[in-house]
Design brief:
Blueprint lengths: L1 H15 L9 H12 L5 H15 L3 E4 L8 E4 H8 L3 H14 L3 E5 L5 H7 L6 E6 L2 H13 L5 E5 L2 H11 L3 E6 L5 H13 L1 E10 L5 H11 L4 E6 L3 E6 L6 E4 L3
Parallel strand pairs: 3-4, 3-6, 4-5, 6-7, 8-10
Antiparallel strand pairs: 1-2, 7-9, 8-9
Length: 257
Amino acid sequence: MKKLHALIKYVQHQILAKSPASIQNPSVKEAIANILKDDHRFYMFSVIESLRAQMLLSSDKIHVDDYGTGVSGQRKIRNIASRALKSATQGQLLFRLVNHLQPTTILEMGTSLGITTLYLSKVNENCRLITLEGSSEIAETAKANFNKLKASNIELMKGDFDNTLPEALANLNPLEFCFIDGNHREKPTLKYFNLVVEQCSEAAVIVLDDIHWSAEMSHAWQRVKEHPKVWVSVDLYHLGVVFLKATGTRGHYRIRV
């Protein structure tokens, strides 16, 4: 059912999505247009993708505690990499968005093997980034990846988001950029979003992953758009981007990537 829902939403998106020129808010239009048209290949892209390739070849097994799906057990790293990691396209889109916004504080909820974390962190190594991972052995694998790329600005917190999120938010107050991943259920997603919003700066940007992965997630995305602090939302199909208290026209947009 999830695959059918995602397919239907994808077809709808392809039919209804427009170009960034349709965005009425000037600052948001500039941000989205810049990240979508920018085809510059930053040096770190190939370095990070080389690390991804290593993960995709690894037959090492680690124990996974999956709070997002509730399915836990032993898994090969290459299987985790093939199923859980954001694509290179999405990781690089996030890199470009952070590069455009230049936040000084970043929170990532859902480290996985750390590939997306590295895309977020390598824009500006003076930026403070905290990433949360529920599964202890996945977190240790991610930490090893951070060390390989000498990513010294990443702080990794292990444990259930319910326990780690309050401390992370207290340490990043005010929060300027957040990427919410790692739990694909409506109720937890909305709970975490509401907690994050309260600690954000007025001009913060929050990105939610897999907003059309299931009917639950599509409904969560609709609720997020209705939050009074959300000024502009941009549906990129895989990712949902919300701008808080942006100046200019308020609105909600589907944009073709």
